[in-house]
Amino acid sequence: MKPRVLSGIQPTGSLHIGNYLGALKHWVQMQPDYESIFLIVDLHAITLYQEPAELLKKIEQTAAIFLAAGIDPKQSPVVVQSLVPGHAELTWLLTCTTPVGWLERMTQYKDKSSKQESIGDGLLQYPVLMAADILIYQANVVPVGDDQSQHLELTRDIAQRFNALYGDTFVMPATKLPTVGARIMGLDDPAKKMSKSTEGPGHAISLLDPPSVIRKKIMRATTDSLPGVDYDDMGAGVANLLTIHQAFSGWTDDQMKAHFAGMRYGDLKKQVAEAVVAGLEPLQARYAEITADPAYLRSVLRESAQRVMPIAEATVRLVKQRMGVYVG
Ligand code: TRP
């Protein structure tokens, strides 16, 4: 039996090349070796206010990008979290065994709540919902960015505590962090990881940006005061552009160095832009095909949910039985 891998992404903002190179691309490559489930976590998204019509649009857009990037829904279900009621149900059951203190210690909670005047209870429970996403499918491996590793540790703590109280119930999920080098930084500020939520037109390259926009954004990317690429004294902005090129071109370190050493930044940027444009072209072409047929996309989402529902229902039933809750 193949190990089960599960990951999720919030349908907010626009998926960008950092999401693609750091996550999606690896998920696609993992498909043959794992039994994969990919979640679009709309219930996580609403822990902060989302404009309803926009959220709905983003859910389908995110799903279409997954498919366009090479997720094969016949192998790997693409599941909208809210279509499987067990996620919310298991969350409640797990909140009852999770100390509030554990949740209040989460750095992402502290960060997000400090920016809000009034916060919903859902923001505090967010990591319990994430634990439920993972534990409901008894996932073995969870690939996430390092910003989520604290939530993964908490998931293991929640599982362990439940198992200790009620007997062995949950599989312990392992964290899988992205490989080094695949971390893409903001074009406007190479000290910050490229983010979906950071506003600012020059920050991220969206996977759906047309070529003219991609070129414009890269030409404006922050570099440094040197005239050209110096491998012995390289600023973070230049290093980021080279990382982006290499991720799309697939060139070796030696090829990169031989080609780019000494190159003026204007020329470097032109070549990086062309590598990104060419690298995204197949994805964008497939995206256009997929979105031309909304009925197909909806059927994929419906069928994906149907496929995973029995696993989710079995876990919820087991958890209820363990806790002595009535299952009829
Ligand atoms: N919280 C994750 C993020 O914002 C998304 C997420 C929700 C997730 N449920 C998950 C990731 C389960 C992995 C597994 O990035």
Distance between the termini: 32 Å
Strand order of the largest sheet: 1-2-3
Residues in helix, %? 40-55%
Structural class: mainly alpha
- The rounded Rg comes to 21 Å
Number of helices: 13
Number of strands: 5
Give a short synopsis of this structure.
The protein is mainly alpha-helical.
Q: What can you tell me about this protein's structure?
A:
- This protein is mostly helical and 328 residues long.
- 55% of the residues lie in helices and 6% in strands.
- It has helices at 17-30, 42-45, 52-69, 86-95, 100-104, 107-114, 121-135, 149-166, 211-219, 236-249, 253-260, 265-291, 294-323; strands at residues 4-9, 35-40, 78-80, 141-143, 174-176.
- The model has no long low-confidence stretch (mean pLDDT 95).
- Bound molecules: tryptophan.
- Tryptophan binds at residues 6-10, 39, 41, 44, 130, 133-134, 142, 144, 148.
Spell out the key features of this protein:
55% helix, globular, mainly alpha, 328 residues, binds tryptophan, three-stranded parallel beta sheet
What is the fold's blueprint, element by element?
Blueprint (H helix, E strand, L loop, with lengths): L3 E6 L7 H14 L4 E6 L1 H4 L6 H18 L8 E3 L5 H10 L4 H5 L2 H8 L6 H15 L5 E3 L5 H18 L7 E3 L34 H9 L16 H14 L3 H8 L4 H27 L2 H30 L5
Helix pairs in contact: 3-12, 4-7, 4-13, 7-8, 9-12, 10-12
Tryptophan binds next to strand 1 and helix 7.
